[in-house]
Amino acid sequence: MAEESSEVATEGEEEKKSSVKVLDTGNFEHLTQSASGATTGDWFVEFYAPWCGHCKSLEPIWEEVAEKMLENRQSGERSAIIAKVDATRCKYLASRFGIAGFPTLILFSQGKQYQYSGERTAEKLLEFAMGGFKEAKGIPVMKGDKERNQIEKLQHLWDVTFQHDMIQIWKLHKAAFFFFVIASFLIGVFVGRLTVSSKTAAQSSKKNN
């Protein structure tokens, strides 16, 4: 999305001093490989807003968690990478993951995402990041248009447009719904017979010649 070309992280100095990785629309999928489930490791990501008071309160705790996870990785343990996304600037990512409140904490692991809803203490967050997330209900990682293949795009189009419209028509105008279904069926039969007739006529013409 062209309007998000300016979403490159501007927190360069902060990132150098911090153990928290800064993600944006441009590098999120490349680094996390969340949609593919590739083995770049687990990622525990905070979606935040700069003006959010809860996010500001979480900042030192999130840093503490990141430092502990980094120490674990440096000692050879498999540990999640701690990261953050400014959801007010990275609107594509906020839309993709349905971010509706701040902070939203999501752990990505092997093609699934797990949303954290516990206490925002270092102890509880570390517990979740170091395997506790497996006890939570995970869902397949949400994909945006950039991550979907052609079949997935068609399926998404069906889910959010045609299927949604049919449900609304059913709720509001059941007679119109049945009319639409019957009309679609008759049009399909007509087109099918027309196609067969055209093929038959073409075959007859070839024989006569």
Protein traits:
209 residues, alpha/beta, 6-stranded mixed beta sheet, 7 helices, 6 strands, 50% helix
| Unreliable stretches covering 5 or more consecutive residues | 10-15, 156-161
Shape: elongated
How are strands sequenced across the largest beta sheet? 1-3-2-4-5-6
% residues in beta strands = 5-15%
Helix fraction by DSSP (H/I, runs of at least 4): 40-55%
Structural class: alpha/beta
Q: Could you tell me the radius of gyration in angstroms?
A: 25 Å
Question: How many strands appear in the DSSP assignment?
Answer: 6
Largest sheet: 6 strands, mixed
Give the oligomeric state of the chains in this entry, treating copies of one chain as homo and distinct chains as hetero: single chain
What's this entry about, in short?
The chain has 209 residues and is of the alpha/beta class. The chain has helices at residues 12-17, 28-32, 53-74, 91-96, 122-129, 150-172, 174-208; strands spanning 21-23, 43-48, 81-86, 104-109, 112-116, 139-140.
Helix-strand layout with pairing:
Layout: H1 12-17, E1 21-23, H2 28-32, E2 43-48, H3 53-74, E3 81-86, H4 91-96, E4 104-109, E5 112-116, H5 122-129, E6 139-140, H6 150-172, H7 174-208
Parallel strand pairs: 1-3, 2-3
Antiparallel strand pairs: 2-4, 4-5, 5-6
Structural overview:
The protein is an alpha/beta fold. The protein is built from 7 helices and 6 strands; from the N terminus they run αβαβαβαββαβαα. It has helices spanning 12-17, 28-32, 53-74, 91-96, 122-129, 150-172, 174-208; strands spanning 21-23, 43-48, 81-86, 104-109, 112-116, 139-140. The protein has a 6-stranded mixed β-sheet. Helix 6 crosses helix 7 (174-208). The longest helix has 35 residues, at 174-208. It is elongated, with a radius of gyration of 25 Å. The chain starts with 11 loop residues before the first helix and ends with a helix.
